[in-house]
Amino acid sequence: xxxxATSLAAIGGSVWRSLRLTCRRLVPVLVLILGLVCxxxxxxxxxxxxxxxxxxxxxxxxxxxxxxxxxxIFIPDTGRVCGKTLPSCGSRAAIALDALLxxxxxxxCTLMGAGTAICYVPFIGQPGGRDLATHLLxxxxxxxxxxxxxxxxxxxxxxxxxxxxIWGRFRPNETAQSWTEPxxxxx
Length: 187
Prior knowledge:
It is built from four helices and eleven strands, in the order αβββββββαβββαβα. By secondary structure, it is of the alpha+beta class.
């Protein structure tokens, strides 16, 4: 005679074995689907675009119909100021970006995902162009974020040591100084 308890245990054991085999086959498929969903969530990540850029009041850029923030930096609020260029009024960072882009044509940006990009503008003496984020960091108008490249942190540290921009003084009429030049604090 067949013992009902033994029979249920045998059936339960085979169900568990089947379930484990199904899970082992299903997990890689779920991981693949999750990876594709994450890839789709950051469209264009790593893709390069080149176009005319419009500087917005907050220091972000409008490029090809999308608003992009510069990757690796945070632009703190420095209040609205009025300059001699268009936009006539805006944040200090926006005015500095607008002055840099004026008459230079298109910017080249690598999309980093989440509405951010690393952008360059053609610049004499710099074969790859000038990095817009580095430009703002050197003027003391931005702060490097934790995920920023090491170069950004070095430029930010230089601006801090020279007490430029948010680190000490604003000079809107001062000519742009290369971040590789030594600062002159004894003025």
